[in-house]
Design goal:
Layout: E1 4-11, H1 15-26, E2 29-34, E3 48-55, E4 58-64, E5 78-84, H2 87-97, E6 103-110, E7 116-121, E8 127-132
Parallel strand pairs: 1-4, 5-8
Antiparallel strand pairs: 1-5, 2-3, 3-4, 6-7, 7-8
Length: 143
């Protein structure tokens, strides 16, 4: 898959409702995975761990952000998310943020869904997510 940059929206427990609304506006195919799908017992089982709406020409992704402090809702509700299988290219992007005034939120490493994932916040407060697909990565459930 070529590298793409998509909008990734965090919701305060309303991801399923919001993503269904976006689907009604944009059309496309919506897939939703819950925290239970990934065995994440410390989160609400029916909470949205990851959702993806693929419409013609663009993608919107979203998740519930349980546990985030309420004062954080004015910042980084929307992140820039690189989605790719180009390991060297996207790892290079991640590495060029690190050590240049960016805060590492999540080190780039293998995650429960099987892909490599990392996240940084740049010096201007923009959150950048890096997800690199590896063979046998996460399985989507229906909406």
């Amino acid at each position: 898959m070529p590298t793409s940059l998509v909008a990734y929206v965090s919701f305060a427990g309303h991801a399923r409702e919001a993503m269904a609304f976006y689907q009604s506006v944009f059309g496309g195919e919506l897939t939703i995975s819950t925290f239970a799908d990934f065995g994440m017992a410390d989160q609400p089982a029916d909470g949205v761990m990851h959702s993806e709406l693929r419409a013609e020409g663009f993608t919107v992704m979203g998740a519930d952000a349980f546990g985030e402090p309420a004062e954080g809702w004015g910042r980084n509700r929307i992140q820039a998310a690189f989605m790719s299988d180009e390991i060297d290219r996207v790892t290079g992007f991640y590495d060029r943020f690190v050590g240049r005034g960016s805060e590492v939120v999540q080190a780039l490493e293998k995650q429960v869904w099987g892909d490599l994932y990392g996240e940084v916040v740049d010096p201007w407060g923009v959150s950048w997510m890096f997800n690199i697909a590896v063979p046998g990565g996460w399985a989507k459930s229906g909406s």
